[in-house]
Amino acid sequence: MRLTRQDVTKILQKHDLLVSEPTDDLVFDHLHYDTRQVQDQTLFVVKGAFKAEYLAGVDGVTALVTDHDLGTDLPQWLVTDSQKALSVLAMAYFDYPQDQLWIGAFTGTKGKTTAAYFAYTMLKEATAGKTALFSTVDRIVGPNPADKKKSDLTTPESFELFKDMRRAVDNGMTHLVMEVSSQAYLRNRVYGLRFNVGAFLNISPDHIGPNEHPTFADYLAHKEMLLDNSDHVILNAGMDHYQAIFDRAASQHDRVLTYGRAGTAPVNGQQPLVTFTSQESALHESHFTVTTGVAVPDLHVISGGYRLNLPGDFNEENAVASLMMVGLAGADHQSMVKGLDEVTIPGRMLSLKLPGHGVAFVDYAHNYVSLLSLLAFAKAQSPDGQVIVVLGAPGNKGVSRRADFAKVLSQKADQVFLTADDPQYESPLTIAKTIADGITNDHVQVHFEMDRITAIHQAINLAGENDLVVVAGKGEDPYQKVDGVDTPYIGDYAAVKECQQALLAGRDYSWRISHDSFLPR
């Protein structure tokens, strides 16, 4: 929609962001923060260390919103925080699409994507397809192939966020399930956005480093912001730092909806309001039962037994949080049963039987808690076999993960192939050696192979009939981030599938299968 000078000033004043304003009589047909996307009559929002010379040769910018005076002749609004300004102006520019959507959001160190897909699949069934999804993997804003695209960020920049919400509303969507990262609050990508339901799944140290959160306390504080901005909140009673998180939620809400595994010790003398019991956890599925207490009559609809089309009892926790969320959204029980029975998640807990070489699991596990859960499950499934792991760690972010991975590998792996995983501007071999240096169990055999596809092939070639090969980190991602460039990559699942097909056909795949590969050394 069009924005006038008066509109912009009023919005910025409402959110206490305005420092000074221009006096020109201005009307804007467009809003943006990227000089490559500027059109005629654009109000341009300056982000970060932007300089006036960056506007040289850019036609169409008629005014600026900035938190530092650029010293140009263009009219400008000076604000206290340009990221916050971008968010509230984007809401208005796209005509407040969030007001036309029921929105449920997940945060947590691990499981956000899994839980989001669970809730999305159930709500999609319950709403006859009128549910959108913003996840780490995909952004889905409608029913057609053109309405689905790969995500660049777990939670997109605010302009893109509200743009996609507008597309979802225009496509007839009534509900939205999304992930909200700590970075989304750190960078004010969701500033001013209110959620119908916010679920906090778990917390453990992650995303701590020079380019991310300076401390764990800062990381947790930004995660907790979801609780302040949600009408209803759901908490995992079994997570670390639960009491502190519960207290934060209770300070903002009369009712905090808690869930946990049946039979666990109560916290402060209170059992979770919703409990679940694992019935069976097999290689390709799990079964569990949910029980709701008398204190949550609005959630009785979720009580009952479920088959989850995903292995691992650790996924049941995420499923219960998702059931509670969609129950609050008004979903019917049959849609819940069908949704969990049929759900598939790109790159998550994908399993492939390998003739003579056991079973391979492909999963996006990329931090301490998710990798620990994955390897513990794998070890339990084949106690007499080896757990052979293929993984790396990203460059220039989450540096603490390297020590965390070493700790998990020391406890749960028999062999590990260390390889590349989005190395960016770092040497993947240096990253791999850092992980290896942290492995304290001398019984873990360590292999180095920086070509990821070759590493996967070698791990499978090494596996015996009772072994499990766990390929962690990339899932079905179609690229590796190298030197700031998204370099094409066939994906972990496709690499494992190559091996499976070769084995089924009786071919030898122990050398490199021909493909366009990623080869950092």
TrEMBL record:
It holds the Pfam family Mur_ligase_C. Residues 348-475 form the Mur ligase C-terminal domain. SUPFAM superfamilies: MurD-like peptide ligases, catalytic domain (SSF53623), MurD-like peptide ligases, peptide-binding domain (SSF53244), MurE/MurF N-terminal domain (SSF63418). Its EC number is 6.3.2.13, 6.3.2.7. Its main location: cytoplasm. Residues 107-325 form the Mur ligase central domain. Pathway: Cell wall biogenesis; peptidoglycan biosynthesis. The keyword Ligase applies. One of its GO terms (molecular function) is UDP-N-acetylmuramoyl-L-alanyl-D-glutamate-L-lysine ligase activity. Signal peptide: none annotated. It is found in: Cytoplasm. InterPro entries: Mur-like_cat_sf (IPR036565), Mur_ligase_C (IPR004101), Mur_ligase_C_dom_sf (IPR036615), Mur_ligase_cen (IPR013221), MurE/MurF_N (IPR035911), UDP-N-AcMur-Glu-dNH2Pim_ligase (IPR005761). Keywords: Cell cycle, Cell division, Cell shape, Cell wall biogenesis/degradation, Ligase, Peptidoglycan synthesis. Belongs to the MurCDEF family. MurE subfamily. This is UDP-N-acetylmuramyl tripeptide synthase (MurE). It comes from Fructobacillus cardui.
